[in-house]
Design a protein that fits this description.
single chain; alpha/beta; Rossmann fold; 2 domains; five-stranded parallel beta sheet; 9 helices; 5 strands; globular
């Protein structure tokens, strides 16, 4: 498995999209030939940083919720075990479903664009057993085909509530489809267009993003917790 540790690994050309080193807020490497291969959204100021929400979420994560995630994966995939299965979690967020799939026996590769989300996934891995060699965590983008190509192919490619946030959903979907084995599964969830309600949530989420440091709490009290949910 092309797996490199989060805090180290090979040179940045090998990882392509940078890695987390030190603080979760570190920016991706921009020196040398790697810079031109970092997707635009890595440094785009308009990108919502979901990792902040996931960090808060982990504070309330407990064993019953983890078991519930396991059951949801079993039901979704219609499998009781994921032994001998390579599982790619594209946009791992909190890392919960990577953990659920790992506990079901899969060999996991998790990645996320958001550095703080990568740190959340790493934290869950450490809680489950940091020496686990069958769970690889990286920072990368679904829009970086070169990065994805280095990961190989997977029996299950899972991307839940992620692709519609990239700004280039169809390109991201195509890139992930190329990572699925010939008899594998591509499992995704994306927003559907519900007309007027979708327009309202679009305004709420853009407002939340633009004024998060000043008015997010008051906005959430009016609109509910869905305004800050990732995916």
């Amino acid at each position: 498995m092309n797996c490199y540790p989060v805090d180290g690994g090979p040179d940045q050309d090998a990882v392509s999209s940078g890695h987390v080193h030190g603080s979760a807020a570190d920016s991706p490497t921009t020196a040398g030939s790697t810079a031109k291969r970092i997707p635009w959204e890595m440094t785009a100021n308009t990108r919502f940083e979901f990792g902040h929400n996931w960090t808060k979420y982990l504070e309330s994560l407990d064993e019953p919720r983890i078991r519930q995630a396991e059951e949801s994966v079993r039901a979704l995939l219609r499998r009781d075990t994921l032994e001998d299965t390579r599982f790619l979690d594209a946009g791992s967020g909190s890392g919960l479903f990577s953990l659920a799939a790992r506990r079901l026996g899969a060999e996991i590769t998790s990645f996320d664009l958001d550095a703080e989300s990568v740190a959340c996934t790493q934290r869950l891995k450490e809680a489950a057993g940091a020496a686990d060699e069958h769970w690889c965590i990286l920072r990368g983008s679904v829009l970086d085909r070169e990065f994805l190509g280095k990961l190989g192919e997977f029996d299950i490619v899972y991307s839940w509530g992620v692709l519609h946030h990239t700004g280039q959903m169809w390109e991201g979907l195509q890139n992930l489809a190329l990572r699925v084995t010939s008899d594998g599964l591509l499992v995704i969830a994306i927003y559907n267009d519900q007309g007027f309600p979708s327009r309202v949530w679009h305004v709420i989420k853009r407002t939340y993003h633009s004024c998060r440091d000043f008015c997010a709490r008051s906005l959430l009290s009016v609109s509910g917790p869905g305004a800050s949910s990732a995916g």
